Protein backbone atom coordinates (compact mmCIF):
# COMPACT_ATOMS: atom_id res chain seq x y z
CA UNK A 1 0.00 0.00 0.00
CA UNK A 2 1.42 3.36 -1.02
CA UNK A 3 2.43 5.55 1.94
CA UNK A 4 0.90 8.60 0.28
CA UNK A 5 -2.52 6.92 -0.01
CA UNK A 6 -2.30 5.81 3.60
CA UNK A 7 -1.46 9.35 4.73
CA UNK A 8 -4.31 10.86 2.69
CA UNK A 9 -6.87 8.43 4.11
CA UNK A 10 -5.65 8.91 7.69
CA UNK A 11 -5.86 12.69 7.28
CA UNK A 12 -9.39 12.42 5.89
CA UNK A 13 -10.43 10.21 8.82
CA UNK A 14 -8.97 12.67 11.34
CA UNK A 15 -10.69 15.58 9.59
CA UNK A 16 -14.00 13.70 9.65
CA UNK A 17 -13.61 12.96 13.37
CA UNK A 18 -12.98 16.65 14.09
CA UNK A 19 -16.03 17.67 12.05
CA UNK A 20 -18.22 15.01 13.68
CA UNK A 21 -17.17 14.94 17.36
CA UNK A 22 -20.45 13.42 18.56
CA UNK A 23 -20.30 10.40 16.25
CA UNK A 24 -18.87 7.18 17.66
CA UNK A 25 -16.42 5.32 15.44
CA UNK A 26 -15.44 1.72 16.12
CA UNK A 27 -11.90 1.35 17.42
CA UNK A 28 -9.34 0.94 14.67
CA UNK A 29 -7.71 -1.70 16.89
CA UNK A 30 -10.58 -3.96 15.83
CA UNK A 31 -10.72 -3.79 12.06
CA UNK A 32 -13.91 -4.95 10.36
CA UNK A 33 -14.03 -5.68 6.60
CA UNK A 34 -15.57 -2.91 4.52
CA UNK A 35 -19.07 -2.87 3.09
CA UNK A 36 -19.55 -1.54 -0.44
CA UNK A 37 -22.91 -0.24 -1.64
CA UNK A 38 -23.71 -0.04 -5.34
CA UNK A 39 -27.05 1.55 -6.12
CA UNK A 40 -29.51 2.49 -8.80
CA UNK A 41 -30.05 6.24 -8.95
CA UNK A 42 -32.78 7.25 -6.52
CA UNK A 43 -32.75 3.91 -4.67
CA UNK A 44 -31.38 5.61 -1.53
CA UNK A 45 -28.13 3.62 -1.39
CA UNK A 46 -26.20 6.62 -0.06
CA UNK A 47 -28.88 7.19 2.59
CA UNK A 48 -28.55 3.54 3.61
CA UNK A 49 -24.78 3.95 3.96
CA UNK A 50 -25.17 7.00 6.20
CA UNK A 51 -27.86 5.32 8.28
CA UNK A 52 -25.80 2.18 8.80
CA UNK A 53 -22.61 4.08 9.53
CA UNK A 54 -24.33 6.01 12.29
CA UNK A 55 -25.66 2.81 13.80
CA UNK A 56 -22.52 0.64 13.71
CA UNK A 57 -19.77 3.24 14.03
CA UNK A 58 -18.30 2.85 10.54
CA UNK A 59 -17.21 5.80 8.41
CA UNK A 60 -19.04 6.47 5.16
CA UNK A 61 -16.92 7.13 2.07
CA UNK A 62 -18.96 8.73 -0.71
CA UNK A 63 -17.96 12.23 -1.84
CA UNK A 64 -15.02 11.82 0.55
CA UNK A 65 -13.54 9.43 -2.01
CA UNK A 66 -13.46 12.22 -4.59
CA UNK A 67 -11.93 14.57 -2.02
CA UNK A 68 -9.20 12.00 -1.33
CA UNK A 69 -8.53 11.51 -5.05
CA UNK A 70 -8.34 15.30 -5.40
CA UNK A 71 -5.84 15.39 -2.51
CA UNK A 72 -3.62 12.95 -4.42
CA UNK A 73 -3.98 14.63 -7.81
CA UNK A 74 -4.04 18.22 -6.59
CA UNK A 75 -7.21 18.62 -8.61
CA UNK A 76 -10.71 20.04 -8.17
CA UNK A 77 -13.31 17.54 -6.82
CA UNK A 78 -15.97 19.08 -9.08
CA UNK A 79 -13.78 18.33 -12.10
CA UNK A 80 -13.31 14.77 -10.88
CA UNK A 81 -17.07 14.40 -10.52
CA UNK A 82 -17.36 15.15 -14.22
CA UNK A 83 -14.86 12.36 -14.93
CA UNK A 84 -16.95 10.03 -12.77
CA UNK A 85 -19.72 9.88 -15.34
CA UNK A 86 -18.16 10.99 -18.65
CA UNK A 87 -15.89 8.78 -20.74
CA UNK A 88 -13.23 8.94 -23.40
CA UNK A 89 -11.95 6.00 -25.41
CA UNK A 90 -9.15 4.33 -23.45
CA UNK A 91 -6.41 4.93 -26.03
CA UNK A 92 -7.39 8.58 -26.50
CA UNK A 93 -7.51 8.97 -22.74
CA UNK A 94 -3.97 7.62 -22.27
CA UNK A 95 -2.58 9.78 -25.08
CA UNK A 96 -4.34 12.87 -23.71
CA UNK A 97 -2.80 12.18 -20.31
CA UNK A 98 0.69 12.27 -21.78
CA UNK A 99 0.05 15.18 -24.13
CA UNK A 100 -1.81 17.57 -21.85
CA UNK A 101 -1.47 18.77 -18.30
CA UNK A 102 -4.93 17.47 -17.33
CA UNK A 103 -6.19 14.56 -15.28
CA UNK A 104 -8.10 12.18 -17.50
CA UNK A 105 -10.22 9.16 -16.69
CA UNK A 106 -7.16 6.91 -17.01
CA UNK A 107 -5.31 8.82 -14.27
CA UNK A 108 -8.45 9.18 -12.21
CA UNK A 109 -9.22 5.44 -12.24
CA UNK A 110 -5.65 4.55 -11.29
CA UNK A 111 -5.80 6.93 -8.32
CA UNK A 112 -9.35 5.87 -7.42
CA UNK A 113 -8.21 2.26 -7.12
CA UNK A 114 -5.38 3.27 -4.80
CA UNK A 115 -7.72 5.27 -2.57
CA UNK A 116 -10.39 2.56 -2.34
CA UNK A 117 -7.90 -0.23 -1.65
CA UNK A 118 -6.35 1.87 1.11
CA UNK A 119 -9.79 2.44 2.66
CA UNK A 120 -10.32 -1.31 2.41
CA UNK A 121 -7.08 -1.98 4.30
CA UNK A 122 -8.14 0.39 7.07
CA UNK A 123 -11.54 -1.32 7.33
CA UNK A 124 -14.47 -0.11 9.45
CA UNK A 125 -15.98 1.66 6.45
CA UNK A 126 -18.92 1.75 4.07
CA UNK A 127 -17.91 2.70 0.52
CA UNK A 128 -20.60 4.09 -1.78
CA UNK A 129 -20.47 3.43 -5.51
CA UNK A 130 -17.62 4.19 -7.92
CA UNK A 131 -17.15 0.54 -8.80
CA UNK A 132 -15.75 -0.18 -5.35
CA UNK A 133 -17.00 -3.77 -5.36
CA UNK A 134 -14.85 -4.39 -8.46
CA UNK A 135 -11.81 -2.65 -6.94
CA UNK A 136 -11.74 -4.21 -3.46
CA UNK A 137 -9.39 -7.17 -3.13
CA UNK A 138 -10.13 -8.56 0.35
CA UNK A 139 -12.35 -11.65 -0.08
CA UNK A 140 -14.06 -10.75 3.21
CA UNK A 141 -15.29 -7.37 1.97
CA UNK A 142 -19.08 -7.40 1.72
CA UNK A 143 -20.75 -6.12 -1.43
CA UNK A 144 -24.36 -4.87 -1.60
CA UNK A 145 -26.50 -3.60 -4.48
CA UNK A 146 -29.60 -1.49 -3.72
CA UNK A 147 -32.37 -1.38 -6.31
CA UNK A 148 -35.94 -0.10 -6.48
CA UNK A 149 -38.66 -0.15 -9.18
CA UNK A 150 -38.16 2.73 -11.60
CA UNK A 151 -41.61 4.19 -10.96
CA UNK A 152 -40.94 4.47 -7.23
CA UNK A 153 -37.47 5.91 -7.77
CA UNK A 154 -38.81 8.55 -10.13
CA UNK A 155 -41.65 9.56 -7.80
CA UNK A 156 -39.35 9.66 -4.76
CA UNK A 157 -36.76 11.79 -6.56
CA UNK A 158 -39.43 14.13 -7.96
CA UNK A 159 -40.93 14.60 -4.50
CA UNK A 160 -37.57 15.24 -2.83
CA UNK A 161 -36.40 17.68 -5.49
CA UNK A 162 -39.77 19.35 -6.15
CA UNK A 163 -39.69 18.68 -9.89
CA UNK A 164 -42.13 17.20 -12.43
CA UNK A 165 -42.03 13.40 -12.65
CA UNK A 166 -41.23 13.57 -16.38
CA UNK A 167 -38.07 15.55 -15.61
CA UNK A 168 -37.20 13.24 -12.72
CA UNK A 169 -37.58 10.18 -14.96
CA UNK A 170 -35.25 11.65 -17.60
CA UNK A 171 -32.64 12.43 -14.92
CA UNK A 172 -32.96 8.98 -13.33
CA UNK A 173 -32.54 7.15 -16.63
CA UNK A 174 -29.63 9.39 -17.66
CA UNK A 175 -27.65 8.79 -14.47
CA UNK A 176 -28.45 5.06 -14.45
CA UNK A 177 -27.05 4.85 -17.99
CA UNK A 178 -23.95 6.87 -17.10
CA UNK A 179 -23.19 4.68 -14.08
CA UNK A 180 -23.73 1.52 -16.11
CA UNK A 181 -21.42 2.80 -18.84
CA UNK A 182 -18.79 3.82 -16.29
CA UNK A 183 -18.68 0.23 -14.97
CA UNK A 184 -18.74 -1.33 -18.44
CA UNK A 185 -15.98 0.92 -19.72
CA UNK A 186 -13.56 0.69 -16.81
CA UNK A 187 -14.27 -2.75 -15.34
CA UNK A 188 -15.79 -4.65 -18.30
CA UNK A 189 -18.71 -5.70 -16.10
CA UNK A 190 -22.49 -5.33 -16.14
CA UNK A 191 -23.56 -3.34 -13.08
CA UNK A 192 -26.87 -5.27 -13.04
CA UNK A 193 -25.20 -8.70 -12.78
CA UNK A 194 -26.39 -9.92 -9.37
CA UNK A 195 -23.51 -12.40 -9.17
CA UNK A 196 -21.11 -9.48 -8.60
CA UNK A 197 -22.67 -8.78 -5.19
CA UNK A 198 -23.11 -10.72 -1.97
CA UNK A 199 -26.59 -9.27 -1.54
CA UNK A 200 -29.12 -7.38 -3.66
CA UNK A 201 -31.84 -5.49 -1.74
CA UNK A 202 -35.02 -3.81 -2.98
CA UNK A 203 -35.73 -0.48 -1.31
CA UNK A 204 -39.26 -0.80 -2.64
CA UNK A 205 -39.75 -3.73 -0.24
CA UNK A 206 -37.61 -2.86 2.80
CA UNK A 207 -36.93 0.33 4.75
CA UNK A 208 -33.46 1.47 5.85
CA UNK A 209 -33.56 -0.32 9.19
CA UNK A 210 -34.76 -3.57 7.61
CA UNK A 211 -31.96 -3.43 5.05
CA UNK A 212 -29.33 -2.69 7.70
CA UNK A 213 -30.27 -5.77 9.71
CA UNK A 214 -30.39 -7.98 6.60
CA UNK A 215 -26.96 -6.72 5.58
CA UNK A 216 -25.50 -7.31 9.04
CA UNK A 217 -26.86 -10.85 9.06
CA UNK A 218 -25.26 -11.59 5.71
CA UNK A 219 -22.07 -9.77 6.74
CA UNK A 220 -21.72 -11.95 9.83
CA UNK A 221 -22.32 -15.13 7.85
CA UNK A 222 -19.62 -14.17 5.33
CA UNK A 223 -17.00 -12.62 7.60
CA UNK A 224 -17.61 -14.35 10.94
CA UNK A 225 -17.84 -11.00 12.74
CA UNK A 226 -20.67 -8.54 13.35
CA UNK A 227 -20.35 -4.90 14.45
CA UNK A 228 -22.53 -3.89 17.38
CA UNK A 229 -25.53 -1.70 16.64
CA UNK A 230 -24.73 1.33 18.79
CA UNK A 231 -28.17 2.95 19.01
Short description:
By secondary structure, the protein is an alpha/beta fold.
Describe it.
Helices cover 57% and strands 10% of the residues. With 231 residues, it is an alpha/beta fold. The mean pLDDT is 82. It has one domain (3-223): 3-Layer(aba) Sandwich (Rossmann fold). The protein is globular and about 50 Å long.
Estimated share of beta-strand residues:
5-15%
Helix content: 55-70%
- The strands making up the biggest β-sheet line up spatially as 2-3-1-4-5
General form? globular
CATH architecture: 3-Layer(aba) Sandwich
CATH fold category name: Rossmann fold
Q: What about the largest sheet? A: 5 strands, parallel
Secondary-structure element order, N to C? HEHEHHHHEHEHHEH
What would the average pLDDT be, to the nearest integer? 82
Which structural class matches the secondary elements? alpha/beta
Number of helices: 10
Report the span from N to C terminus.
34 Å
Radius of gyration: 18 Å
- State the domain count: 1
Low-confidence segments, given as residue ranges, are: none
CATH class: Alpha Beta
CATH superfamily: P-loop containing nucleotide triphosphate hydrolases
Beta-strand segment tally: 5
Fold blueprint:
Blueprint: H1 3-19, E1 35-39, H2 45-56, E2 59-61, H3 63-73, H4 77-85, H5 90-99, H6 105-122, E3 125-128, H7 132-135, E4 142-147, H8 150-161, H9 165-187, E5 199-202, H10 208-223
Parallel strand pairs: 1-3, 1-4, 2-3, 4-5
What distinguishing features does this structure have?
alpha/beta; Rossmann fold; 57% helix
